[in-house]
Write a structure and sequence with these properties.
With about 210 residues, the chain is of the alpha+beta class. The chain has eight helices and seven strands; from the N terminus they run βαββαβββαβααααα.
Length: about 210
């Protein structure tokens, strides 16, 4: 089943320059889609600070959305609600509309993210909800992925701009030597930053989840 995604910006009403933050987000999504186009329908602004997109499977969604998180600088954050389930499109007088269990699940997921962020786990940035019609394996897969997301968001939230850039680079296959040249630091410094930030565990965990 496909994965519908609803995203919104963290603290958008408190941002000093909302338009500039939107440009930064748009550029990050463009960069990710150009580097590794995994979306069936790429994240696109809908209304207010909300974005919507569709991915071919959970692995593609987890990879692409993590790349967006890593591509964003300090001060601009984004939340994701992922809904696993069917989506359908139909024509209306206002244009093409999309609906279905995947979207209903994504809406429930983004509401849970907002609730947890305001509560005991402020680092929460993503959650997955399964829609109707799941097979017997998917609930366990979603539970494992959500456990990973809780720790992933905690680690990424604690990273510096440089640590996020290095993690993004490793995810894209750049060597530590290449990243050192880009950052103007030594290869051992890159290795230390990746270990200290938890990036190595983060990337290995993603590999285990996505195969």
């Amino acid at each position: 089943m496909v994965v519908a995604v609803i995203a919104d910006m963290v603290g958008s009403r408190r941002l000093p320059d909302r338009a500039a933050a939107q440009r930064v987000l748009d550029e990050a999504i463009d960069r990710v889609e150009s580097a590794r186009p995994l979306a069936i329908e790429r994240l696109t602004p809908t209304v207010g600070d909300e974005q919507q997109g569709v991915y071919q499977d959970l692995g593609a969604a987890l990879t692409s959305l993590m790349m967006v998180q890593l591509a964003l600088p300090d001060g601009v954050g984004i939340r994701f609600g992922l809904g696993v389930g069917d989506v359908r499109s139909f024509e209306s007088s206002g244009g093409r509309l999309s609906d279905g269990p995947g979207w209903w699940a994504a809406r429930a997921a983004i509401e849970l993210v907002n609730e947890r962020e305001r509560g005991a786990i402020p680092s929460t940035r993503a959650w997955i909800v399964g829609g109707q019609g799941q097979d017997e394996v998917m609930p366990a897969t979603i539970s494992a992925a959500n456990a990973y997301l809780l720790l992933r968001d905690e680690l990424i939230g604690a990273m510096s701009d440089r640590e996020r850039r290095l993690t993004y680079g490793r995810l894209m296959g750049s060597s530590q030597t290449e990243l050192a040249a880009q950052e103007g630091i030594t290869q051992p410094a890159v290795s230390k930053a990746l270990r200290r930030s938890g990036a190595n565990a983060l990337l290995l965990g993603l590999d285990e989840l996505t195969g």
